[in-house]
Write a structure and sequence with these properties.
Helix content is 31%, strand content 17%. It is an alpha/beta fold. Helix 10 packs parallel to helix 12. Bound molecules: pyridoxal-5'-phosphate and iron/sulfur cluster.
């Protein structure tokens, strides 16, 4: 592997303004912005010694980072390192926390065990086995969704699809199962460390199109990953062009693309070889009468500050794509109302639509990132009341649990009992959506599985039906 291009040494990191060659005046004058295009190159755990900015960490901290990177996936790139992370604020900088491994992400015992193997130069196979053992303790298969959500046609599973909610089918193209960088908190972490049996991927497009053609109640396709924007435009076109041309797919009105590329590699839409082709493809789908939604993932307003991300947003909007924004609430990254207020306001100002706030999932480095449900609810409330109605399109905080997306509406005392007020935003049975229900208050609860029905009830209103779905007595998705 060649060295990363900037020289190690004491000189300051390239300033965050590196991409901002253009002044506001030039922008106003309508001149074509100039964005020096650098080629995307992934930096992985084996490149940690080649990142000059890490030299400001102590030797112990660098070692700790390698210990964690042996267990949890690490991937970053020069844009994130040179333009997003504020190295003067490390380790507290939220963008640093988003991509770089931290000691606290492993339990102390697991950390020491891995550190010990590395110090005594244990064999690669011993380290690999040790890492596997630790990963198995981190709930790598959250919510057991695989079995429940994979659709079948004539008892054959359809590769690369998930169909949990009636109107939306998720599609996992095989070429889109990695990302421009990895989020340390990602619930898909296991697939990035090569746990291949976790991957739900599509090897070809026909299964997708045939399945959708046979399901007229599906209005939305959600292309997801990994990050599908890692794919070349030509591959995207192969999957998406039939939606422009094929009358069998006319009922699929909304094409959504889930991506964090606006944060991790905005050049995908500005300056990459096939950036213009991508914009033209999206424009063609819009012109065919479809709604194209970029489901963007932003955790912090600092991701929205570079000139290149702003240009990428402008170009996507220019071709008629709507950008909706969603993110989990995470300790160390965005655990405060102020961060959300500023992020939602900034999103609205840039013409994007706040969509979901999620609760961090029960997997991976959850001990490091999780926040009690009550606090998550208070952070949401503390933010929503200060923003204008244009930002109140956001819903949440929402838990993507096995029965559905469950919103925490409030913590209140009702009839002398302190309870969580919950509501389905999405359900395996659409009849569940919108109905409030109540769980007993638990100050430590961080996930839906921790909650018990309130008021001495034995079960929630959907429990029997949900159990029937799990046991296969009912279809897992109601149509
Ligand atoms: C969130 C989600 C969707 C989309 O839900 P919307 O509320 O329509 O955005 C679809 N499928 C799965 C499995 C999801 O988790
Ligand atoms: S970009 Fe998305 S899929 Fe990729 S690591 Fe981050 S959260 Fe996970």
């Amino acid at each position: 592997m060649s060295k990363v291009p900037s020289e190690p040494g004491n000189e300051p990191a390239p300033s965050p303004g590196m991409m901002s060659l253009q002044t506001d005046e030039e922008h106003l004058a309508g001149m074509a912005p100039v964005f020096p295009s650098s080629r995307y190159k992934a930096l992985s755990a084996k490149h940690l010694d080649e990142i000059p900015q890490l030299e400001r960490l102590s030797a112990d901290d660098r070692f700790a980072m390698k210990v964690v990177a042996n267990v949890l996936p690490f991937r970053s790139n020069r844009y994130v390192i040179d333009n997003l992370i504020d190295w003067d604020r490390v380790p507290d900088d939220p963008l640093y926390q988003i991509t770089f491994p931290q000691r606290g992400m492993l339990e102390e015992g697991d950390f020491l065990h891995m550190a010990d193997m590395m110090r005594r130069d244990a064999s690669a196979s011993e380290i690999k086995a040790g890492a596997h053992e630790i990963r198995e303790k981190l709930n790598p298969h959250p919510a057991g969704q695989r079995e429940l959500n994979i659709p079948k046609v004539a008892h054959e599973t359809v590769q690369g699809l998930q169909h949990k909610y009636r109107e939306t089918v998720l599609f996992f193209p095989s070429q889109g199962q990695t990302c421009h960088a990895y989020c340390t908190f990602c619930f898909r972490w296991a697939q990035f460390v090569g746990d291949n049996n976790l991957k739900i991927v599509a090897k070809e497009a026909d299964g997708l199109h045939d399945y959708l053609a046979a399901h007229p109640d599906v209005s939305d396709l959600l292309v997801t990953g990994g990050d599908p924007m890692i794919m070349k435009t030509a591959v995207f076109a192969h999957y998406l062009e039939p939606f422009v041309e094929d009358p069998r797919l006319a009922h699929v009105q909304d094409i959504r693309i889930g991506t964090k590329s606006l944060t991790f590699w905005p050049s995908r839409f500005v300056g990459d070889d096939d950036a213009d082709d991508m914009l033209r493809l999206l424009e063609k789908i819009v012109k065919a009468g479809k709604h194209v939604a970029i489901m963007a993932h932003f955790n912090h307003w600092r991701e929205l500050e570079t000139a290149v991300v702003r240009e990428a947003i402008r170009r996507l909007r220019d071709v008629g794509a709507v950008i909706r924004c969603q993110a989990p609430l995470l300790a160390h990254i965005n655990d405060s109302s102020d961060v959300w207020i500023r992020m939602w306001e900034e999103e609205v100002r840039l013409g994007m639509i706040p969509y979901y706030m999620f609760v961090e999932r029960d997997t991976g480095a959850r001990n490091y990132f999780e926040v009690p449900l009550e606090r998550t609810c208070r952070v949401f409330q503390g933010a929503i009341k200060y923003v204008s109605g244009l930002a109140r399109t956001v819903r949440g905080p929402s838990m993507s649990a096995t029965p559905g997306k469950i919103e925490i509406q409030d913590v209140q005392e009702i009839a002398g009992e302190k309870v969580f007020i919950l509501r389905f935003l999405q359900g395996r049975n659409p009849d569940w959506v919108g109905r409030p229900f109540y769980a007993a208050y638990d100050p430590k609860a961080t996930w839906f599985d921790h909650l018990k029905p309130a008021f001495g009830q034995e079960k929630f209103f959907f429990t029997d039906e949900f159990n029937a779905m799990v046991e296969g007595r009912w279809p897992a998705t109601r149509h």
